[in-house]
Write a structure and sequence with these properties.
Elements lengths: L3 H11 L4 H8 L3 H9 L7 H10 L4 H5 L9 E3 L32 E5 L13 E6 L7 E7 L2 E9 L5 E4 L7 E2 L4 E11 L5
Parallel strand pairs: 1-2
Antiparallel strand pairs: 2-3, 3-8, 4-5, 4-8, 5-6, 6-7
Helix pairs in contact: 1-3, 2-3
InterPro entries: Cro/C1-type_HTH, Lambda_DNA-bd_dom_sf
Pfam family, one: HTH_3
GO molecular function: DNA binding
Length: 195
């Protein structure tokens, strides 16, 4: 994550903020801002990244983009195709220190619900990083294809190894059916908090 520190500094200067002003907006000390910009602190929690993007008045994707590339969020709709299937959308390499406790390899895609679309576990404006995968890796939120409809479900293994999924509004485990297939693992989730 060598590019995040310089990017924070660049965006801070673009926003015409000194370290103390940015620190007040984010809710951290100006020393923390210095450590982030220098790379001395490389792990920044999701909530702080969202607050940082709000304070800098920039999209979160701009903080996460690789040098020379733009990682604009893709719109997720409830019907296929997947937003990254057209081949023009490149994935991002999301540094593991940004998502402690997750295990995955390969690219991720920044995704947000399309206007008017509703998904369990996601609010309008939320941003998620989805690692495409048809393999169950660990319990958590997954993008699934449920008989032609894309949905977000909390997936876990039952006592005998079978996959179970849960809706946001119910604790009742639903058995996996042949009409369901895993599409990707949600490895990071950012929600904009009101100021």
């Amino acid at each position: 994550m060598d590019t995040l520190g310089p990017r924070i500094k660049e965006l801070r200067l673009e926003a015409n903020l000194n370290k103390a002003a940015l620190a007040r907006r984010v809710g951290v000390s100006d020393v923390t801002i210095s450590y982030w910009e220098s790379g001395a602190i490389r792990q920044i929690g999701h909530e702080r990244l969202v607050a940082l993007a709000q304070a800098l008045n920039c999209p979160l994707s701009r903080l996460l983009e690789e040098a020379g590339t733009q990682a604009a969020p893709l719109y997720l709709r409830s019907r296929p195709p997947l937003p990254w299937q057209d081949g023009r959308q490149k994935g991002i390499d999301l540094p593991i220190e940004m998502v402690p406790g997750q295990r995955w390899d390969g690219d991720c895609h920044l995704v947000t619900p399309a206007p008017g679309e509703r998904f369990d576990f996601l609010a309008a404006g939320d941003l998620v990083a989805i690692a495409p995968s048809d393999i169950f890796r660990q319990p958590g939120l997954y993008l699934i294809d449920d008989d032609g409809t894309l949905a977000i479900r909390r997936v876990e293994q039952g006592p005998t190894g079978e996959l179970l999924f849960h809706r946001e509004s119910s604790d009742e485990a639903m058995p996996w059916t042949p009409a369901c297939r895993l599409i990707g693992k949600l490895v990071a989730h950012w929600r904009v908090q009101p100021l």
